[in-house]
Amino acid sequence: MSRTTRRLSAAVAAVVLGATALMGVAVSAASAAPSNIDPDEPRSLTIHKLSQPATSGAAGDGSEVPSGSLPAGALPIDGVTFTAREVTEIGGVAVDLETDAGWALIQPYLANPGSFTTAGNTLVPAGTGVTGAAGVPGELVFDSLNVGLFYVEETDAPANVSTRAQPFLVTLPMPTTEPGVFRYDVHAYPKNLATTAVKTVNDTDSYALGDVITWTVSGNIPLSPVSDYRVVDTLPAELAYAASPAPTVTIRSAAGAPVQLTSPTDFTVTPAGDVYTMELTPQGYDELWLAGDNAQVDFTIATTVTSIPSDGTITNTAKVFIDSAEFDVQAQSLWGTARVNKHAQGDEDARLAGAEFQVFATEAAANAAAAQVAAGDPVTGGLEFGAGSTAGADRKTFTTADQGADHGFVVINGLKASAAGTKYWVVETKAPAGYVAAAAPTEITVYPGTGLTGSGSVANVPNQMREAGALPVLGGAGMTAIGVAGAILIAGGVLFATFGRRKQTEDPAEV
């Protein structure tokens, strides 16, 4: 197949796929009772603008598709303008979706959207918006829409978009296959043939300062070949390049398995301070050309977290160059701190230094560690922290200390956080002298930033004092015991004296 033919085929496929719009409905806004349409239920239409994927996914059923389930190459596109208009009359007949006649009127057009035309029908403006303008890549939300039929079309797009998605019709609410249930939050996935790029972060298995997190820059190339493909990743002060795992480049084609390139044969990564530039070699461009039109290139680089900014947001930015197009992409990872106050049981102001703690990512691991402490066994499973944390020499243990006017506490800095709060558990592995370690783990909640804001970010852990040994008491059984012992000693002395005198009388020669 010639390059021209491939380009034409891709463009036609984009138009056809765009016409379907892959409209969906979110389950969260379902109305289970009553079964009639509820005009007071809030309604919305969310458009997820994506590039044409390498391989088409399944037809949308209306629900929101998790980002991880989107086809390879379906990347968000910002800057695309959509206009929604409500269809109020068709052929002079009012469209009223609160009546069965209204649904019967629009049914032929829902079954065959291509048969609908704007000519001869009445359409009322319902809203205009731009994808990505609200901060979510490729997303545009129309909310507070009427109960009705809407005609949605793409009215403007940036220069990197080479085709337009076809207009589509959508009802609010939409019937579902579940009897008596309508959906009120509708999601649509129109596609474009476009050159675009996006950056994502994988910090799923990262918990503590020093852990490795990976960043992936994905570029979509609708038409092959290209003569320039570069990624320039600038690491912020809170990140350091990690040589392991090594950087990777993967090409995902419209057909066939992904191809992982080899360094330095197919690509190179060149450092310059905190800037890392990935470039394809001639062999790498050959692999990209073989992938054909609509290929996706993924560049992944690993870093470690070295410090936490005051707001807890680590932002990693990059530039992607695809021939004459240039894209600025970024992704973020959230980190924070927590504080543990150690005090005597019953008095939170009686702070204690010398208590040792370890941090655990799961409650199960924390409970296992608490059992090890109780049994006197070595503690396992605690998170390990990198340089820059307040952990001790083993990189796991935090010790409460006296620190001027404030004392008996430790700040655990460098824990992965989330806006809603991420839970961890601390286990007291050693109590201060004269106290008993807490038997159960203590839950803490970590929010982004170093300000210790949010309920649960400061934990108070009490210690019970050890029991003192029993001493004799005055009077009672104690005095009786002393009296008896004294009487025995006195009686013994009398007997010894009497026995001695008697012995002298009986044997004076020995004196």
UniProtKB/TrEMBL annotation:
Keywords: Membrane, Signal, Transmembrane, Transmembrane helix. The chain crosses the membrane at residues 473-497. Residues 44-192 form the Gram-positive pilin subunit D1 N-terminal domain. Residues 341-446 form the SpaA-like prealbumin fold domain. The keyword Transmembrane helix applies. Residues 51-70 are annotated as: Disordered. Gene3D superfamilies: 2.60.40.740, Immunoglobulins. The keyword Transferase does not apply. It comes from the Bacteria. InterPro entries: Fim_isopep_form_D2_dom, FM1-like, GramPos_pilinD1_N, Ig-like_fold, SpaA_PFL_dom_1. Residues 1-32 form the signal peptide. NCBIfam families: iso_D2_wall_anc (NF033902), RrgB_K2N_iso_D2 (TIGR04226). This is Isopeptide-forming domain-containing fimbrial protein.
